[in-house]
Write a structure and sequence with these properties.
With 232 residues, the chain is mainly α. It has seven helices and four strands; from the N terminus they run H-E-E-H-E-E-H-H-H-H-H. A hairpin with a 5-residue loop joins strand 3 (97-99) and strand 4.
């Protein structure tokens, strides 16, 4: 899950929460803040703490992210206790998940017990672990939930282009085309970062290419580090 830095509030409070859309898009890009897919339809503003439960936060910048239809509908109006949930604008959520071939994700085994619970909560909140191969029916996505399928498609694409990068005598422009054009158009930042994990130059390019990625969550080699002030 890509860690994002929204920056300070563009204004004290919005007249209507929908007025924050252009600011969110320019700050963190048109990607779902949870599953990382590029938002092709009309972007949905995500209230971290549901406006039905916390109306005072309905127009607050600190309570707003961007979400896809699947994540928003799954999360719905569930109550969120920020002290118990890792969030992409607060923590280095990239450290908390492992992305695997076939569109599978798992909570990282390298976390402390407290961090494991924080990541487990956000995964359960939006059911990011749903996959067509799951044994339990409740752990499988609905017909309209294509998040796992899209992750799988982008994984296969990234693997193919990794092969091109590792070929001798490749075109030097290929790295730029992959990181600056292909990857942002397909989304799923964490998939690209995972597949190209042995290529620091590509990791640095991906971090720069996805708008609003929190640069303090990565070191000079593009490896994930604890986010200053965060819990991961």
């Amino acid at each position: 899950m890509r860690p994002v830095a929204k920056g300070p509030p563009p204004q004290a409070e919005y007249s209507h929460y929908r007025d924050a859309l252009s600011d969110l898009e320019s700050r963190i890009g048109r990607f779902c803040s949870y599953c990382e897919q590029p938002i092709q339809h009309a972007p949905e503003i995500e209230h971290v703490q549901p406006k039905s439960l916390e109306p005072a936060l309905e127009r607050s910048w600190d309570n707003l992210l961007l979400g896809c239809m699947s994540c928003n509908r799954t999360k719905s109006n569930k109550p969120v206790e920020l002290a118990q949930v890792a969030m992409p604008d607060m923590d280095n959520t990239f450290r908390g998940l492992v992305f695997l071939q076939g569109g599978h994700i798992e909570v990282s085994p390298d976390l402390t017990d407290e961090q494991d619970e924080l990541m487990g909560q956000i995964v359960r909140l939006v059911r990011l672990d749903r996959h067509p191969d799951s044994r339990r029916e409740d752990d499988r996505p609905t017909d309209r939930d294509k998040r796992a399928d899209l992750r799988c498609d982008v994984w296969d694409l990234a693997i193919r282009y990794l092969g091109y990068i590792e070929k001798p005598g490749r075109d030097p422009l290929l790295s730029s085309l992959i990181a600056e054009d292909l990857a942002p158009s397909k989304g799923f930042f964490s998939v690209w970062m995972t597949v190209f994990r042995n290529h620091p130059d590509m990791l640095e390019r991906f971090i720069r290419a996805f708008p609003g990625t929190d640069t303090t969550s990565f070191n000079a080699e593009g490896q994930a580090v604890c986010r200053p002030g965060g819990r991961l």
